[in-house]
Amino acid sequence: MDKQQLIDCHQRIKPFIHDTPVLNSRLINKMGNASFYFKCENFQRMGAFKMRGAANAILQLTDEQKQNGVVTHSSGNFAQALSLAAQSLGVKAHIVMPKSAPEVKKEAVRGYGGILTECESTLHAREQATERIIEKHGTTFIHPSNDDQVILGQGTACMELLELYPDLDYVFTPVGGGGLIAGTALAAHYFGKNCKTIGGEPFEVDDAYRSLQSGKIEINASTNTVADGLKTQLGDKNFPIIQKHVEEIVRVSEQEIVSSMRIIWERLKIVCEPSSAVALAACFNKKELLSGKKVGIIISGGNVDLSKLPY
Amino acid sequence: MDKQQLIDCHQRIKPFIHDTPVLNSRLINKMGNASFYFKCENFQRMGAFKMRGAANAILQLTDEQKQNGVVTHSSGNFAQALSLAAQSLGVKAHIVMPKSAPEVKKEAVRGYGGILTECESTLHAREQATERIIEKHGTTFIHPSNDDQVILGQGTACMELLELYPDLDYVFTPVGGGGLIAGTALAAHYFGKNCKTIGGEPFEVDDAYRSLQSGKIEINASTNTVADGLKTQLGDKNFPIIQKHVEEIVRVSEQEIVSSMRIIWERLKIVCEPSSAVALAACFNKKELLSGKKVGIIISGGNVDLSKLPY
Asked: Do domains A3-48+147-308 and A51-141 have the same CATH topology?
C-alpha cells in the first residue's frame, strides 16, 4: 500500500469521522522522561478508532455491493463501528456475535442500526452463520483487522497526529488483530520523519511478539488479559506490513496495564479502555530508549463497562 | 465588576491556564433535546476551573504581598489550585486543611509545592490556624469563592466558551461556594447575546436555591451529597452577583447526579467530578425550557478518587 492510498483514504472518510484531539500531561511526561502526545480515539465516533477502517471499507464497495450490505463477526468495537459506518452510508450491516456476548454490546450494535445474528461461541458456528448471511443476501464480508481497506482507515489516526506533530520520534499502539498497528506503521513510514512504530502487547496474548520472532503467525493458547480488545490474532494481510514496518513489540504485564490505565484516567481525565493503556505501559518499559524523545500514543478507544473497572 | 475587568483578567491569566476544549455528544443532545457544549475544565491545570481564580488572585497582589505569600483554607480543589498557581508565580502558598482530610488531597497540595498546616476540623480551629499564619508571615488570605478576583478568574471559562459559541441561549454551572456561577453569570451578561445563566444544586445542599428565595444567605444544616465540591456556602461578594445575574437555581437528586455523571463518562469519555454532573442533571430537569436551544455546560473538574466511584 502506498502513500497516495493513505491520502485518498483520509479524504474519503473525513466526512464520517472526527479529527480527534491530542492531549498531554506534564506529569506523565515527567514519569516517562519523554514528551507524550495522546491521540484520543476514545473520542472517535462510537468510541474507538475502528470507525475509521469500517467507514473506509464500506466506502470502497461498488454500488451493487453497498445495496447488498456488509457482514462481520465481532463482539467488540468493530461490530459497533461497522454498524454505525453502514448506517451513516445507508448500507445494511449484519453482525454475527456469540449469544454469550454481553447484552450491553448487543444493545450498542442494535442502537447503531446493526442487524444482529447470534450464534454459539465457536469459530465454526460463527463462520457458518456468516456464510449463511452471505449466501442469502449477497453481503460482503469485512474482517475487523485483516483487510487492506480497514488497515488504511486505521492508519489515518496516525496521519492526523503527524499533521500536528510532524517530528515524532516514535508512535506506540496496542496490538490486537494487527489492523491498527499495521495502518499506523504505514502512516509513520510515509508521513513521519524517521518516526518508528512500536507495539504494546500483553504477555498473556503475545502472539504478535512471538510471530515477529518466528516469522510466521503464531496463535494464543489462552487469552487471559484485562485488555479484552487485544485477544484477537494477526492475519495474513497485516502481518507482512508489521514485519516490514514495525520496529518492535514490547510485552507488558496485567498489573502494568491497570496501573497505566489508572494514570491515563487520573492525569488525562479521560475514559479509555484497558487495551489503550497497553501502549503507555509499553512506553514506561522503554524509558531509556524514549528519554527526551517525542512519542505519539494512539488511545484506541473508550468503551468500558463502568461497573466492572479494575480499580 | 465590569466587562473590561473580565477582559483584563483573561489576558492576565492566559499564560498560566489552558484554554480547555469543548466537547459534545449527539446522544446527549438527543437525550436532552438540545445542543450541549461541554466546556471541559476537568482538562484545566490541576484538574479544575479553580486554577483560573487562584491565578488571577495572586497576579493581582502587590510585589510586597507576593513576597509574603498567600493562605487559604480548603480541603478541595482550591487548595491545589492556589498551590500550583503560587508555584507557577514563585509565591509561597500556605494551605490550612483539617487533619481528617484524605491523605491523597494532602499529597496533591504538597506535590504542587503548597505548605500544609493541619488543624482540627472545626471552623474555629481553621480560622485560628489561618490567623496565626497571617500574623507570623504577613500572608494575604484568599477565599476559595468569595473574592472578587477569584470570581473574575472563574468567569473566564465562560468567556472562552462564548468566544467559540457566541450564540448560546443558556449556560449551566454547578453551585457550591458561588464563585463559578457568579463569574459565569458576569461573563454571560457581558459577552453573550441574551445568554442566561442557570445553576444546578443538589437538594441536599440547596443553600443557593433557598438564598435566592429568601433574599439572604442561607446555611446548610447538613451536607449529605455525593457532589463533595458543592458543600460550601455562598458569600457576601458573590451572592449579590448571583441575585442580579442568575436566572434560576435548579435542584437535583443524588440519583440524578450519579446517572448524569455516568452519562458524561460513558458518552463524552471523560472523567469528571460528581459536582460537574449536577449541571447536566439540572439540564435534564429543564427539558421543556431548553428544547431546541444551545446550552453551554461548565464541566467544573475531574479530580475523583477512582477507588471510590458511585457506580
From this structure: yes
Contacts of residue B265 in chain A, CB cutoff 8 Å? Answer: 271, 306
* Average pLDDT estimate for A197-221: 97
pLDDT of residue B188: 98
Helix/strand/coil (H/E/C) assignment for every residue in A23-48? ECCHHHHHHHCCEEEEEEHHHCHHHE
Task: Enumerate the residues of chain B whose CB falls inside 8 A of the CB of residue A23.
Answer: 43
Average pLDDT of span A59-72: 98
Kindly report, residue by residue over B279-307, the tens digit of the pLDDT.
Answer: 999 999 999 999 999 999 999 999 999 99
Instruction: Spell out which residues of chain B touch residue A270, defining contact as CB-CB under 8 Å.
Output: 269-271
CATH of A3-48+147-308, one of 3.30.1300.10, 3.40.250.10, 1.10.10.10, 3.40.50.1100: 3.40.50.1100
Domain range summary for chain A, segments of one domain joined by +: 3-48+147-308, 51-141
Q: In whole angstroms, what separates CA B1 from the centre of its chain?
A: 18
Domain B51-141 in CATH 2.30.30.240? The answer is no
Q: Active-site residue B75, yes or no?
A: yes
C-alpha cell at B100: 481528617
Specify the pLDDT at position A123.
Answer: 85
Query: Rounded to an integer, what is the distance from CA B261 to the centroid of its chain?
Result: 17
Provide the 3-class DSSP secondary structure of residue B199: strand
pLDDT in tens, B54-105: 999 999 999 999 999 999 999 889 999 999 999 999 999 999 999 988 888 8
Residue B97: per-residue pLDDT? 95
Nearest-angstrom CA–CA distance, B263 and B281: 10
3 state DSSP class of B226: coil
Give the model's pLDDT for residue B250. Answer: 98
pLDDT exceeds 90 at position B123: no
Q: How far apart are CA B152 and CA B149, in angstroms?
A: 5
A305 has a chain B CB within 8 A of its CB: no
Give the CA-trace dihedral at A165, A171, A174, A180, to 10 degrees: 70
Across the interface, of B23, B270, B306, the residue whose CB is closest to A266 is B306
A275: left (phi over 0), alpha (psi -120 to 50) or beta: alpha
Interface test with B, best of A19, A38, A268, A269 (most B CBs within 10 A): A269
pLDDT band at A104 (very low <50, low <70, confident <90, very high): confident
Global pTM reads 0.95
